[in-house]
Design goal:
mainly alpha, 317 residues, 18 helices
């Protein structure tokens, strides 16, 4: 097929960085300065605080005056059952989010690209974006009403005869991970699909015309032109998502969690908040954050290395 033959034309061509190129793009470089300043102030300078993870930090003494304890906090981490449980929960929730939350925006963008009515396409895009701007506090309240034993979902399931008794979705610990993934996907699918929609729009339309001449239908065009056309963007975002596996946060878990499902809802961030900052164990909380950051960095490098191994032209760096 012509579309398949010309897939290589879609790849991003690398440019050699020269003084002339930098001068030509001086406006873009100047626009990036505020972000770089923000990154240095809020991302790199705070790394100085990692020293606390090797100390028994006391605010009254400060970093320079606190006692040095070496790897004591890290040894305590790897032997704490609740911390290991939090690591398991974080990885499990992230796995569900990758499986559902990462793939659904791609599927949504592909389906939306096949819609011929421009008015309906714009309407669908607008509707899909709206949940992104809704606070998780409101989303959690809605889920609490919909998923309780007398809520809409249980009423529907019992009326269809699919269950004989109400299901406590937020009361069953093992159901927390899929419920969280589905709720997050509903909230973010439209917003996350924007970049894929933009990538699809940048594909050369003559490839589709050539494929049509060869007799390719919609599915063939999608398989041999659209998917390869957004492959680079997809892989880069996948690498970044893999690097953020342990950075899942705690807002959603606190709002949707309860004492019953806490064994599957507590994440590393929530653990650091509960057993570190809240109890004034600042060194211990810093050790938790440092552990998470180092593992995330290793995951990014590993995912990027694997992507480079599969295709030398694809990768974050």
């Amino acid at each position: 097929m012509a579309g398949k033959r010309h897939v290589k034309d879609i790849n991003i061509h690398k440019q050699k960085i020269t003084p002339a190129l930098l001068f030509k793009q001086k406006s873009l470089i100047l626009m990036s300065f505020p972000f770089l300043i923000w990154l240095i102030i809020f991302a790199y300078i705070p790394l100085w605080g990692w020293i606390m993870s090797f100390q028994n930090y006391k605010p009254a003494r400060g970093i320079m005056g606190s006692d040095w304890v070496g790897l004591e906090h890290f040894k305590r981490l790897v032997t704490d059952r609740q911390f290991l449980e939090a690591v398991r929960n974080t990885i499990g929730q992230s796995a569900y989010l990758l499986l559902i939350g990462f793939t659904m925006p791609i599927f949504f963008a592909l389906m939306l690209n096949e819609v011929k009515s421009l008015r309906f396409k714009r309407f669908t895009q607008t509707i899909s974006y709206l949940p992104h701007f809704v606070s998780w506090v409101i989303v959690a309240s809605i889920l609490g009403l919909v998923l309780n034993t007398h809520g809409t979902i249980n009423t529907l399931l019992m009326s269809l005869g699919w269950t004989s008794r109400p299901i406590s979705f937020l009361g069953e610990p093992t159901m927390f991970w899929p419920v969280l993934a589905i709720a997050d996907t509903w909230k973010q699918v439209g917003w996350n699909a924007i970049i894929y929609i933009a990538a699809i729009a940048s594909i050369d339309q003559t490839l589709y015309e050539a494929a049509a001449v060869d007799g390719a239908g919609r599915w063939r065009k999608m398989l041999h032109i659209t998917l390869p056309g957004i492959a680079t963007v997809t892989i880069i975002l996948l690498i970044l998502n893999i690097g953020n596996i342990l950075n899942i946060g705690f807002e959603r878990q606190i709002l949707l969690g309860n004492p019953v499902n806490q064994s599957h809802s507590r994440t590393i961030d929530q653990y650091a908040l509960q057993y570190g900052t809240s109890k004034a164990r600042y060194s211990y909380g810093t050790a938790v954050g440092m552990f998470r950051s180092i593992i995330s960095l290793i995951l990014v490098f590993a995912a990027n290395w694997f992507a480079r191994k599969m295709d030398a032209d694809v990768g974050v760096f």
